[in-house]
Fold these 2 entries.
Entry 1:
Amino acid sequence: MRSSSCIYRHTSMRSRKLFWICIVSVSLIALYFSFRYFVSTITELPAGDSLNNIIRSDTENIARGKILFDAKCRFCHNAYNTETIAGPGLQGILKKPELPVSRRPATSDDVRSQLRQPFSRMPSFDYLTDKEVEDIIAFLNTL
Ligand code: HEC
């Protein structure tokens, strides 16, 4: 009799512990998803998109990107063909599978790293803000 009540108490303590572990993990998961949702609303991302790989398609972003491109990239890069000036022509740059020189995947993330830490001879554009880089990528995506 005594031993069985002891077993009973033991299992109920264990299930109570399990219960709390469940509650804590469910809350952590809920917290994680609400945080992701919060981040996606402040940056206006469609849910599920990677924060770094999003490409904007609003006309204002594209227009600002073109102005930046003309001011900072055009003397080394053709936008409307693939002929080289100092760097490769960037026509269709984000529509091809690979970037022309480094052969890294043609994603917005890799273009961003080309601007921050260029592959070899291109000057770095580390001083551009994230927003400006986003605009340039929006423009490149239309080429
Ligand atoms: C002074 C010349 C110069 C300027 C200005 C310049 N680039 Fe480049 N770019 C290069 C050269 C040279 C390469 C070839 C790869 C290298 O040397 O890093 C290149 C490569 C690239 C590539 C392909 C990278 C790869 O991985 O194959 C992209 C994309 C690019 N540039 C985008 C830009 C953008 C966007 C700007 C403007 C913000 C810009 N470049 C400004 C010279 C330039």
Entry 2:
Amino acid sequence: MIYSRPLIITILISLIIVFAHACGGNDTSERPSGQTGSAEPALSDFELEHGIGPVTERIELADEFDPDLVEKGRNIYEMKCEMCHNMEGRMVGPELGDIMERRSAEFVMNFILNPSGMVREHPVGQELLREYMTAMPFQNVQEEEARAIVEFLREYNELN
Ligand code: HEC
């Protein structure tokens, strides 16, 4: 039996349409909603913007700097941060002179308090680790000390 060429083409096209529909049509409905297929847990909006760590809420920042807090932050910074960070230009880690323009106070505190979690689980941390190829160590800094460092960095950013 001899089929005409248009008939064969029509059958082929019909088969392609049926196949495409069966294979791709209800792909998404087979996955439980919310699951992206990657092993990483989804970050909340807060975590994406303000980092992962002990700081889980916005903190209050007064317009005026607290001079005692600035001084305390400066001392800790000189002891525990300066060996790896410059205010101007990169060193072992990124420059920090303009960090308060680039990141929120909560993000900076979470990076100080949970550096390994940040490079493991946060997209910004992962990107920084790829770029700097050294993992920032936890410097045994308490939460109020991290807050003081933020005050010092805020003032630095304002004055320079
Ligand atoms: C041993 C070197 C080292 C020390 C000490 C160190 N850091 Fe870091 N820091 C890094 C590196 C490297 C990165 C980039 C992320 C990574 O690779 O872990 C980084 C990243 C950061 C970031 C994120 C920068 C951005 O662009 O978001 C902040 C904020 C930061 N450090 C603050 C500090 C503070 C404050 C201290 C002192 C308490 C400190 N670091 C101590 C090496 C260090």
